[in-house]
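Good morning C.,

I know you're traveling, so I'll keep this short. The sequence:
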Amino acid sequence: MSLQIPFYLTADEDYFPNPNLALSEPNGLLAIGGDLSPKRLLAAYRQGIFPWYDNEPILWWSPHPRTVLFLNDIHLSASLKKTIRRHDFEIKLDENFPQVIKECATPQIRQGKMQEETWITPKMQQAYIQLHQLGYAHSLEVYAQDTLIGGIYGIALGKLFFGESMFSKKPSASKIALVYLARQLQSWGYEFIDCQLWSPHLGSMGAITLPRPLFLEKVMQNNQYETTAEKWKLDPGIII
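The tokens, ready to paste straight into the viewer:
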């Protein structure tokens, strides 16, 4: 058996190896090195690649299979529908991106256990805040009495949204964020949200997995669409 090793990136910010060459173990590891410049990050997402690492060097991934949430297929449980009908919250877009990514980077309690430190380092936060300032990274926020209780952020290119992370400080707040983001994107003609890796939580919301070649084909097709880099505004007519 030959030893598989990832590629090392060059100084060329546009260059990434073919994502289909990513390792099978660890699943999806493709390349090492480079930086988090806006040009390199956008080049990565346009090729179905994303950064994910704890410490230097930067690691770049394209896992197989890939988890996606088609906007037409999002699932709302009876309890989530009831929570949304109460509507004791407010939804905003791009009003506090830095705070959303900061909250996503803060360890959260899941199933009664505190998470370990997340991979969203200060360097990573600053890189995505810069993309937000350039109009490519966006956040959807959930507020209760003017307090931020949940949210999600990611990258929008063409008609795809590449989700990065979400957080919840109140029950179902992250699910509410995902539902409203899906409905807003759907109204704009988007096809799906890239969720990267599978989890039961995402599965319960209707996410499925695609073989990497099919996912990459959809990403390449999506590159034909123009991206309007600007601050997003919530459509007040969104119906859940």
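Safe travels,
E.
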